[in-house]
Write a structure and sequence with these properties.
Blueprint: E1 4-9, H1 13-24, E2 29-35, H2 38-46, E3 54-57, H3 66-76, E4 81-86, H4 91-100, E5 104-107, H5 112-125, H6 131-141, H7 160-170, H8 175-182, H9 186-200, H10 205-214
Helix pairs in contact: 4-6, 7-9, 7-10, 8-9, 9-10
Length: 222
């Protein structure tokens, strides 16, 4: 198995060093970059011959913080998946970061097992949303009143196939699993996923889940 390439961005030196040591003890993880804020992270990324798969970043850092870094990543390195790792657990902040393009959000008191689960899940499905994050997304979206069983009120028209694929994405199926279940090729599934991203204006798979929650598309998806 090809190691997951990780970049780690946090201004707290002791925390960053501890997390780096944890990463270095994992045979399927390759720590390729450490940085203390968004500015040094972007400089480091520019000097790499191969980009990381996943970037773990704190929210509050001197200079360029995690919020601005997420914007820059989307513009410059859209293939790099962002996990926010923060002491803050505000539901509005969590939903905002997922809406801006983060593929996951973990609090700094999460344990090693959940961190590893997040990394492997993101490599497989493109996102990791634990119960805390899903609840935050759901609660922030509750002020929108939309029928839970149909697309009434949804600002875009989705085809039947797109709805099927979005439903399976929300159930954490990988591209290959969706392809097998619907008797499609992985390339066809990716094509539908890209169409969903374009139609909904979302940046990644986690954003599609937020879209489905916001418009209550699937009553039993979560």
């Amino acid at each position: 198995m090809t190691p997951i390439r990780i970049a780690l961005v946090d201004d707290q030196l002791l925390f960053r060093q501890s997390l780096a040591m944890l990463m270095q003890g994992e045979p399927d993880i390759a720590l390729v970059l450490e940085a203390d804020n968004g500015d040094s992270c972007l400089k480091g990324l520019a000097g790499l011959s191969e980009l990381p798969d996943i970037l773990l970043a704190d929210m509050e850092m001197p200079g360029m913080d995690g919020i601005e870094l997420s914007e820059k990543l989307h513009q410059l390195y859209p293939s790099v998946k962002l996990i926010v790792l923060s002491v803050h657990a505000s539901e509005r902040l969590i939903a905002r970061m997922i809406d801006q393009g983060a593929c996951g959000y973990l609090t700094k008191n999460c344990d090693r097992a959940e961190l590893m689960t997040a990394l492997y899940t993101i490599r497989s499905t493109g996102y990791y949303l634990n119960s805390r994050v899903l609840n935050a997304m759901r609660n922030v979206s509750r002020n929108i009143t939309i029928s839970p069983k149909n697309l009434t009120g949804v600002p875009v028209a989705l085809s039947k196939r797109e709805k099927e694929i979005l439903h399976l994405i929300c159930k954490e199926y990988s591209t290959s699993e969706i392809a097998q279940r619907l008797y499609l090729s992985p390339r066809t599934v990716e094509g539908h996923r890209n169409n969903l991203l374009q139609k909904t204006g979302r940046r990644n798979t986690a954003g599609l889940v937020l879209f489905a929650l916001k418009y209550r598309l699937f009553e039993t998806a979560y």
